[in-house]
Amino acid sequence: xxxxxxxxxxxxxxxxxxxxxxxxxxxxxxxxxxxxxxxxxxxxxxxxxxxxxxxxxxxxxxxxxxxxxxxxxxxxxxxxxxxxxxxxxxxxxxxxxxxxxxxxxxxxxxxxxxxxxxxxxxxxxxxxxxxxxxxxxxxxxxxxxxxxxxxxxxxxxxxxxxxxxxxxxx
Length: 170
What we know:
Blueprint: H1 36-51, H2 56-68, H3 72-85, H4 90-102, H5 106-119, H6 124-136, H7 140-153, H8 158-169
């Protein structure tokens, strides 16, 4: 486990057991082994989003699928189109933090994390992510301070558990 991970990241290195990755256990995911059903779902969602870009539920579903399909730039574009309509959507801001983090765009990941905290100052996962971003930037003392605060302020939460693990590894 890497203590410098955003909370959205699943440390499980096994192939996800979902529609996208079904049937490719032990194989490297590629265009050649993506199921026809998945391709159809992706195309159907793309058409629905193009015909009604204001249906933010469909746009989010499409963006989530793009993200799971290892298409971060396309996913970011879709998620950000929702923020233009409603900038206070934490359910949109959090995946953007994760996507920018994986692209090593730490300033953008931090910007979106701070937006989550501006909307909900008690968002434990966003606090955790801020600690992970500080650790990534080499600010171990600041990361430690943030994660210790989470353990105290949000005991018995997933964020506190992850923060405890990260503190041990820091």
